[in-house]
Amino acid sequence: LLRLRQPVGQSYAAEARAHGLQVQPEALGRSFREVYGAQSRRFPNYGHGQGLSSRQWWLDVVKQSFRLSGVQDEAALTKLAEKLYDDYCSSHNWEVLPGAAETLSRCRQLGFRMGIVSNFDSRLEDVLCQCNLRHHFEFVLTSEAAGFAKPDGRIFQQALRLGGARPEQAAHIGDDYSRDYRAARAAGMHSFLLRAAGQGEGPEVPPEHVLPTLSHLLARIEK
């Protein structure tokens, strides 16, 4: 549904410039990827089971990304982290994928009940509201709120209860083979994999389950 307006490194570098610091976007991008991966392994699902809040989890990621890129001023790091945490809660950094709003509107007209199941943190509600998408959905279930992250089947079970549907009555759409496509099917649901042209070859998926864009969803469902 959503994508970043620009790479993380560029956003971080722009905010650094606003605070009088010069850091190369490429260096910040590399640092972010390294830090994010390490933080995710050490504190999975935003540290939910280890006493962290998602806010603290993200503030640590931002600070460590800047430290790894050469910024050592702790006062500046705190200001940068808090500002960037707030910025990623808004449409300032997010945009709606082409065709998404139209597809969601058509799905509602056809009587589909829709919800979101996402490995996102508690800011997702605000992001969706800012991007004028929240009204399409009956519920928004984040991994932070659920206590489990995809591909754990328990988050799908919670979503099915919230939607009042049996697994065979529901379909999940996502862009990750393991966390979305395969995990939803393991929970007994239908699923579709968003795989844009040029993304490269991944695990084999029946062509009728692949969506080049979200706009292809209704035609797939009709089949």
From TrEMBL:
It comes from the Eukaryota. InterPro entries: HAD-like_hydrolase_domain (IPR051828), HAD-like_sf (IPR036412), HAD-SF_hydro_IA (IPR006439), HAD-SF_hydro_IA_REG-2-like (IPR011949), HAD-SF_hydro_IA_REG-2-like_cap (IPR044924), HAD_sf (IPR023214). GO terms for cellular component: nucleus. Signal peptide: none annotated. It holds the Pfam family Hydrolase. SUPFAM superfamilies: HAD-like. Belongs to the HAD-like hydrolase superfamily. This is Haloacid dehalogenase-like hydrolase domain-containing protein 3.
